[in-house]
Amino acid sequence: MSLYIHIPFCISKCSYCSFTSFKYDFLSAEKYLKALELEICIRFFEKTFKKQKVNTIFVGGGTPTVLDDELIKKLFLILDEYFYLNDVSEFTVESNPNTLSKQKLKILKDFGVNRLSIGVQACQRRLLEILQRAHDYEHVIHSFELVRGVGFDNVNVDLIFGIPTQTLEEWEQSLKNIIDLQPEHIACYNLQLEEGTVLLERVRKGELESCHEELELKMYNRAIEMLVKEGYVHYEISNFSKPSYECKHNLCYWYNDDYAGVGLAAHSHVCGERLSNTDDLKLYVEKLMKGTLPLQERILLSKQDMMSETVFMGLRLINGVNLKNFYDKFNINLTDVWPDQLDKLLSEGLVKISGDYLRLTKKGLPIANVVFREFV
Amino acid sequence: MAVDQLKIRNFCIIAHIDHGKSTLADRLLEYTGAIDKREMEDQVLDTMELEKERGITIKLQPVKLEYKASDGNTYLLNIIDTPGHVDFTYEVSRSLAACEGALLVVDASQGIEAQTLANVYLALEHDLEIIPVINKIDLPSADPERIKREIEETIGLDAEDAILVSAKTGQGVPEVLEQIVKKIPPPKGDASALLKALIFDSYYDPYKGVIAYARIFEGTIKKGMKIKMMATGSEFEVDEVGVFKPKLFETESLTAGEVGFIAAGIKNVKECRVGDTITDAENPAEEPLPGYKKAVPVVFCGLYPVDNADYDDLRDALDKLSLNDASLVYEPETSEALGFGFRCGFLGLLHMEIIQERLEREYNLSIITTAPSVVYHVYTTAGDVVKVENPSKMPPPGKIDHLEEPFVKATIMVPKDFVGSIMELCQERRGVFKNMEYVGISRVMLTYELPLSEIVFDFFDQLKSRTKGYASFDYEMIGYRESKLVKMDILVHGETVDALSCIVHRDKAYYHGRALIAKLKELIPRHQFEIPIQAAIGNKVIARETVRALRKDVLAKCYGGDVTRKRKLLEKQKEGKKRMKQLGRVEMPQEAFMAVLNVGEKQK
C-alpha cells in the first residue's frame, strides 16, 4: 500500500495551475492539519490502511514545504503516530526552490524522508515569469546545494516544456542546466493549458502565443535524446531516472496497485474502489470536525474498469503492461479481452508485444491517447 | 336531428407566423365556452409538441363552436385551419375550399407578410368572404390605420370595418364572432343529393385508423355506409362520424354544409388523400369536387442512421410518420459513405426539417441528413430525359446533353431599407429580377425568379439575417429551365464521398468547392496520417486542402492518482469517435455531411 498526503497551500498561485490551492497562512494550515489528522485517524480505524503495510509515502501539493517548521514537525508527528516511518522504503516530499532552508530539510531527514522533489519547471527568468513561479533559477542552484548538503541522495526535478513562447533552445538549456546538477530523477511534463487558468486566458487574449504542436514534439524528443545520452532511463512517458531510481510511489499508480490518498481532493484506490475527497477546503475541515469522511465520489469498479485502467495506466510505462501479471490478476489474457483492438493497434504499429510485455512503440508514444482510447 | 344549414358558418383563419392565429383561435374557444378556462393550456389547437415549442403552427386542429349571436340564434361555427407555411400551399387551398369565409389576421405593427398575401389570393380565388382582423392592438407599436391602408392597397380589400382585436386581452373577440355570423354566408348543398365530401386533412389514429377531416358538400354520410375515395378508388365502410369539440365527438350523421370527421378503418393516409372526394360507393356521384392533386415532393435528401444497426428502426419510424403524412415519400438507398438509408422527398424545407426533428425527437434516432437536392431533368446525348434527385446518381458528363432545373417565382416583402441587401442576395442566388412594388410607404414587394436549388440552401435564414428578421417570403413553382450545372465531387483521402456530391452552377463551382472543403477541413478530426480533401468536377480538381496528421496526443501527468478523471476523459473521446462514420481509413463526423448546407455564407 502506498500513501499520498495532500497539502493544498502555496506561496502564490502559478499561472498554469488549475488545482484548488490556497495562499499559505499559518492558521489555516494549522486547522487543515488538524482535519488531516482526523481523516487519517478515521480511516485508520476503518482499516483503509494498516500500520505495517505502508510501503511508500508521497507528500504532495500545493507546496508541502511552504509549511512553517513547526507545522512540518506536526505533520510528521501525526504520520509517525500511525505509520512506521522507518519501514517506509520511499518517502517523498514535494517542494519549491524558495521554500527550502537547511533547518527544514534537516527536519525532513530526521523523520525519514528519503526523496525530495523540486519543482524547477524552467531555468529562464522570462519563462518563470510567464509561469508566475515564485522563484528564480538562482534559488534552484542554492536549494540543490542545500538538499545535497543535508544528505538527500534521491532527488527529483520537475521540468515543463511547451510553455507559450518557449523556444527549443531554451528547453535544451533547461535540460542541460538540470543535467549538470545530476539529480537522480527528472520528470518532463508537457504543459497543458487548463480551463480557468491565467495562462490560458492570456493565450486566448492573444497576449501570448501557445506552443506549436510540432515544436512540442521536438522538445519531447529532444528531452528523451539528451537524457538517455546522459545515462537516464526513460521509464515512463514523462519520467526519467538513473537506473534503479524510478519513483516507487508513482509506479504504484502505473501498476494500478492500491493506494490511499488523504487530504483535500486526494484520491484513493482501495479494494476495487476509487474514492475521492471533496476539493472544498471549508467542507473538508467541517466534515472531519464532525467526524465524517469528506468523500466526494466513490466508484465501485467493474472488472472491465479495472482491466481498462490496468492497461492504459500500465502502457504509460515504457516497458509496458506485464501480460503475465495481467492474467494473474484477472484470470484472462489481455489479448483475449481486446483482440480486435490489439490487431488494429499492432498493424498500425502503435504498440508491440515483446516478451511478457505489451508496450507503446516509438510511433505510439507521442499519440498514446489514440492507443489508450481503444482500451476504455 | 337535422342541422339547420343556415345556422352553420365554415371559416378559416389566414395569418402570418407570429401574428397570433393560435391565440385568437384559443380566445374564440374560450369565449364560446367550447373549452373550460381551467382546461386552457396555451394554444390548445396546436397539437404537435414541436409546434408548441417553436411557437409556430403547422396545422391547427379543426373545431366546432356553438355561438349564441345577438340575433338570438345559436350558430355552429367551424374553424378550419390553413397551415401557415409555403410548403403546404396545396393543403391550404384544400382547407380554403372547405370554407365560405376567412378571417384575415394581420399584426397591428408588422403588417401584411408575403405568406399572408399568397393565402389571401388563394382565398379570393375560392370566392371566400374575407373579414380583416387587426390583431395585437394592445402593443405600443400598433398602428391600425397604417395596416388598414396596407390591406386596402395590397389586396384591394375594403378594410374600413376591419375589427381591432387583442387576442391576448380578449378585446374585440365578441365583435369577431358577430361579424362571422353576419358576413360569412351559410353553406349550400342538398342533404339528399349524392354524397360529395372533401377531405381537407387527415391523421392516423392507432386504434381507429385514418381519421379523415371532411367538409360535406352534398348528401349525407353516416355510420355503416360504404364509401369510395374518388381519386384512389379505395372503398371502406364508415365506422364513425362526428364533429370536433375540439375532441372528437361522435354524431349520427354529417350532412351537406357540415364539417366533421370520418373513421372507416382506413389503414394508410395514402388511401385518404387530402383533396380527394368521398362519395357513396353504392350511389357514387358522377364528378368529384374540383382541385384534387397528388402532392409532389420537390426537395429530396438522404436520411441515414448514424449507427447502421438502427436501419430497421429508421424504416419503422418513417413508416409510422408516413401513416400520418401522405406527402412524405421515401425509398431505400445505399451510399458507399453512409451505408443503408433512405432517399426521402418533402414538400419543402420546413417539411423536411419537421420530419428530421420528429425522427430524432419522437423516435429517438440519431440520423445523418445529406444536403437537400431538387429534382433535375437530365437530357442525355442518347435523347432520353432522366429525372435525378440524388447528385451521386448524375450520369457522367460525357453522356449529358444539357440539364434543366426547377425554378420558382419568389415574392419577398421587406422594409424598404433592406431592399438593396435582398436584391444582392437574390443576385447571388442566380435570381432574375421581375418586379418591385411599394406596399404602403415603408415596405417593398420584390418578385424574382429563382432556381429552387438556390433557395433550399439556407435562403430563408439569409433573408431573415439580412433584414433583422423583417422579410417574409413565399414561392410557387414555375417549371423547369435549362441551366449550366455541373456535378461536383468531394474526395476525402483520395476516395469520392458520394454523400457529399452536389450539383452546382458552373460559374460558382470554384468558389463553392473551396468553401466546402475549407469547412470540411475544420470538421474532420486529425488522424495519424495526412488527409487530402479535394473538390473535383469530372477528373479536374478545382480545390484542395489537407488535414494535417496528428502528431501529439498524450494525457498530462496524473495528479495524485486521479485515474477516474483520466478514464472519463478517454471514454468521452471514445464516445465522440463512435458517432463518426468510418470511410475507408478516415473517420468523418456527422457534421461533415451537413457541411454542404452552410457553406459559403460564413465568410461574409
Characterization of the model:
The complex is a heterodimer of chains A (376) and B (604). With 376 residues, chain A is α/β, with parallel strands linked by helices. Chain A contains 15 helices and 17 strands. In chain A, the strands form four sheets. A nine-stranded mixed beta sheet of chain A has the order 9-10-8-7-6-5-4-1-11, sandwiched between helices. In chain A, strands 12-13-14 form a three-stranded antiparallel beta sheet, with no helix packed on it. In chain A, strands 15-17-16 form a three-stranded antiparallel beta sheet. In chain A, helix 1 runs parallel beside helix 2 (69-82), helix 1 (26-45) packs across helix 10 and helix 6 packs parallel to helix 8. The model of chain A has no long low-confidence stretch (mean pLDDT 94). In chain B, the strands form seven sheets. Chain B has an eight-stranded antiparallel beta sheet with strand order 11-10-16-7-8-15-12-13. A six-stranded mixed beta sheet of chain B has the order 2-3-1-4-5-6, sandwiched between helices. In chain B, strands 21, 22, 23, 24, 25 and 26 form a six-stranded antiparallel beta sheet that branches. In chain B, strand 18 (329-335) and strand 19 form a beta hairpin. Chain B is globular, with a radius of gyration of 27 Å. Residues 52-57 of chain B have low confidence and may be disordered. At the A-B interface, strand 8, helix 8, strand 12, helix 11 and helix 15 of A face helix 13 of B.
List the helices and strands and how they pair.
The complex is a heterodimer of chains A (376) and B (604).
Chain A: E1 2-7, E2 9-10, E3 22-23, H1 26-45, E4 56-61, H2 69-82, E5 90-95, H3 102-110, E6 115-121, H4 125-130, H5 137-150, E7 155-161, H6 168-181, E8 185-190, H7 198-205, H8 213-229, E9 233-236, E10 239-241, H9 248-254, E11 259-262, E12 267-270, E13 273-277, H10 281-289, E14 295-300, H11 303-314, E15 321-322, H12 323-330, H13 334-337, H14 339-347, E16 351-354, E17 357-360, H15 368-373
Parallel strand pairs in A: 1-4, 1-11, 2-3, 4-5, 5-6, 6-7, 7-8
Antiparallel strand pairs in A: 8-10, 9-10, 12-13, 13-14, 15-17, 16-17
Chain B: E1 8-15, H1 21-32, H2 49-54, E2 63-68, E3 74-81, H3 89-97, E4 101-107, H4 114-125, E5 129-135, H5 144-155, E6 163-164, H6 173-183, E7 196-205, E8 209-218, E9 220-222, E10 226-229, E11 235-237, E12 240-244, E13 248-251, E14 253-255, E15 259-266, E16 277-280, E17 299-305, H7 311-323, E18 329-335, E19 339-346, H8 349-362, E20 367-369, E21 376-380, E22 385-388, E23 400-415, H9 419-428, E24 432-439, E25 443-451, H10 452-456, H11 459-466, E26 472-483, E27 485-492, E28 495-496, E29 502-505, H12 509-523, E30 531-537, E31 540-547, H13 563-578, E32 581-583, E33 586-588, H14 590-594
Parallel strand pairs in B: 1-3, 1-4, 4-5, 5-6
Antiparallel strand pairs in B: 2-3, 7-8, 7-16, 8-15, 9-14, 10-11, 10-16, 12-13, 12-15, 17-19, 17-20, 18-19, 21-22, 21-23, 23-25, 23-26, 24-25, 27-28, 27-29, 27-30, 30-31, 32-33
